[in-house]
Amino acid sequence: MSSEELAKVGEEKLIHVTTRGRKTGQPHIVELWFALNSGKVYLSHEGKNTDWMKNIKRNGQVSFEISGKNFNGAARLLESSTEEAWEAKVALYEKYYGKASKEVIEDWFSLSKLLLIQPYRE
After folding, report:
1. Residue 104 belongs to what domain range?
2. β-strands 27-33, 69-77 pairing
3. CATH of the domain at 87
4. Which residues are CB-neighbours of 3 under 8 A, at least 6 positions away?
5. How many domains does the chain have?
6. What's the pTM value of the predicted model, to 2 decimals?
7. CA 90, CA 87: separation in Å to the nearest integer?
């Protein structure tokens, strides 16, 4: 799928991300909120690293589906204090809640881990 096709589904609410189990090699699918910005897919999760996040740490190649459209990409966790992480926080917060101050956004994501999927260009 192309970046134009990805942009068309950017306003959808949910994404299904498929990782490969780091122990079993079996597909592991999760449903999450997401945001698109500059052709990148941002995800967040509050709390401890989950199995799907540990799978991404081991093997960042993922597939994902939004509104029946399938994509592939390279996923990775973001360092919390980087500009890239700030872009993710703003994109996610504004998509679901609207504009807010930096303090509100930082507080909202204070316990969250952020991830990025860079879609492959096909």
Report:
1. 3-119
2. unpaired
3. 2.30.110.10
4. 39, 119, 121
5. 1
6. 0.92
7. 5
